[in-house]
Amino acid sequence: MTKHNLKSNAVPAAVMVGPVALWLSFFVAIPLLYVLVMSFCSIDEHYNVVFKFTLVNYQRLFNPNYIQIYGQSILIAFLTTLICILLAYPFTMIISRTLSKRKTILYMLVIIPFWTNSLIRIYGWKTFLGTTGWLNTGLMHLHLIDKPLDLLYNRGTTVLGMVYCLFPFMVLPLYTVLEKLDQNLLEASSDLGAKGHTTFLKIVLPLTVSGIFSGSIMVFIPTLGYFFVSDILGGGNTDLIGNLIERQFQSGNNWSLGAALSIVLILITLLLVKLYQKCGGDMDNLGV
């Protein structure tokens, strides 16, 4: 290919890629770089960010109270991910084996919640589970309980809210791999005398583990940052890393520490994505 052809091909490519590159630079790269720089800045007596290099913000990350919140965040994220797998896997298998018309309906049931803001839906759960909510009112009318149950402001309710918000993110990658599953392999396994659970463990599960891993990352990472779910349903009793970050930028007025916490969360995300790549995962399943 001649130099003239290379130049003629470079112009359309620059026109196509240029706007995207500028968009990513201004709205992704530069803000992240600013957060990184801020994480090494100091705070004066008036809680203003001073561009004076310090490692104090990263030293404060090892505060015992913060470490406890890190552990609680990982526990809640793990429980949320595990429950999403257990619920989404059989549901997705049903969708993948359903006829086309019903398949569309079931698939839409997963997509429809995205049409409503998640904050509004979480407030709906708070109303439903409250002491004067529909659930307690219905149980009392049925004389199943004598007084309202205290269902809000605990770890279990926070996990429930997380599962509700992030369940579709587990279904979508699982649906992708289950839809591509070769049914001939299942028929061959049945013809050779393998039972249902054997076929699942030896064929279905190994062929869909990439979807499980992809969905786990898409659920685990957002759980660490969904501070509004913990605030509304947990009542501040189940703080996450996202709550720490939100608090530093709002009531704490310590933007530098909040930036340092944000960098830690970004590093966790990159580490999990890198682990996913090492395991042979397809980045398209993560939307990257």
TrEMBL record:
Parts of the chain that traverse the membrane: 12-37, 69-92, 104-124, 159-178, 199-221, 255-273
Key words of the record: Cell membrane, Membrane, Transmembrane, Transmembrane helix, Transport
InterPro entries tied to this protein: MetI-like (IPR000515), MetI-like_sf (IPR035906)
One Gene Ontology term, aspect cellular component: plasma membrane
Subcellular location: Cell membrane
Family per similarity comment: Belongs to the binding-protein-dependent transport system permease family. CysTW subfamily.
PANTHER family referenced in this protein's UniProt entry, alphabetically: INNER MEMBRANE ABC TRANSPORTER PERMEASE PROTEIN YDCU-RELATED, INNER MEMBRANE ABC TRANSPORTER PERMEASE PROTEIN YDCU-RELATED-RELATED
The protein's name in its UniProt record: Spermidine/putrescine transport system permease protein
Organism: [Clostridium] fimetarium
